[in-house]
Amino acid sequence: MNSNGISFFRDCGNPILFREVEGAMASVDIGQIFGQSENISAFEKQRQSWDQESREAVRKKKVSQDGLVRVFHEGKVLLLTADEAAKILQEKEGEDAAQDALRRNLEKALYGGSRAIAEELRMLFFFAVQSLTERVKDESISDKEAESMTMNLRRRFNETEENISALVQVENELTQRKNAEPIFAAYESKMARMIRFKRDGQMEQAVALAKELERDKKLYLLHSRALEPLTYASYYHRLDLQKSKSRVLKIQQQLTEMRDTVVRKVLQELQTTLQSNGEDLQQQLATLDHSESAQKFLKYQQELQKLTLEVKVLVKTISEVDKVCRWIETEVFKDEGIRKAAITHAQAGKEQVKKSGEPSDKGDKQAGRMVIAERLKEEGGKK
């Protein structure tokens, strides 16, 4: 970094700025990375909201900022104590927990609202930018690495926005075509009512509706097959978005590990300094009368504990997302012909998005659960 706190990175001839505002943390210029769009104001609002949440978490949990563990969990970013983060890790252990997570994550990936998916991904990009900002400030990252990561984030963000836009277009078309056929609304309404009756123990009503559904099933499936090209294109976009989620989480992991490496090195240097001065480290840490070096050691030790937990949760979360991607690839797209048709349709949708410049989250209508819902139910019954 140069002395005035600003360094320049070049991408296609345009400078990417890392700014240091007086009295504030150095920050990546979001406009330079993500383009001049409505996304900039959303990122700035997220930054302000996060700063407020951080202050509240410090106050409520009665810990220092260094003691708060940032955890990406079930579509949310949480600020937790070390004990709370360790509990989440413990809850994720075991085969039953893994299967439960897979079912929940598949449900969100394949049927979650497009707006909710978009908001989660943008949130993840925001925190990746925030972490890159922190690495620039604490000099855990070289200029060359920062330039490469900046371009990587920009590319991944643009890919994600294109996928979201294309998904919205496909699912809006699906919704319009389904609305034109009364069988869809009637059949799916009966299905929802039957599920409610079964859940509430009203088995007589549930059985009666099950018979009606069986009678109407052939007509429903006949109309559903006509929509399969759009349906599978939707699933393909959703698969791509899960891959984007995995990629940005891996960038977050890389940035966190960069800081982890620096902190470990500082701790080793502090320990060497204390020992060379003839100070007993353990005795210093065991008493309230810490030397300045011992106080620094405790501070970095706490930060290392936080970073270690953050990386562990990230590794687990990435593994869960990758399992979702593998399941969709091997189960939803097990037929090569369906996969190729979905890719062709999805690519055409992306090209249309590029030409139209359509905002990525207009509309949030789900396209229905025709082809994959039964398979998910089967997965649930295997537990």
Structure write-up:
The structure is a single chain. The chain is mainly alpha-helical. It has one domain (7-381). The chain has helices at 30-34, 38-61, 82-91, 95-111, 114-137, 143-179, 182-199, 203-226, 228-276, 281-286, 292-332, 336-356, 373-381; strands at 7-11, 14-19, 27-28, 69-73, 76-80. The longest helix is centred in the middle third of the chain and has 49 residues, at 228-276.
The percentage helix is over 70%
| Largest sheet geometry | 3 strands, antiparallel
Tally of strands: 5
| Regions with little confidence, pLDDT below 50 for 5+ residues | 1-27, 362-379
Backbone shape:
elongated
The number of helices is 13
The total number of structural domains is 1
Q: What features would you highlight for this structure?
A:
three-stranded antiparallel sheet; two-stranded antiparallel sheet; single chain; 383 residues; 13 helices; elongated; mainly alpha
Outline of this structure?
This protein has one domain (7-381). The chain is 74% helix and 6% strand.
List the helices and strands and how they pair.
Blueprint: E1 7-11, E2 14-19, E3 27-28, H1 30-34, H2 38-61, E4 69-73, E5 76-80, H3 82-91, H4 95-111, H5 114-137, H6 143-179, H7 182-199, H8 203-226, H9 228-276, H10 281-286, H11 292-332, H12 336-356, H13 373-381
Antiparallel strand pairs: 1-2, 2-3, 4-5
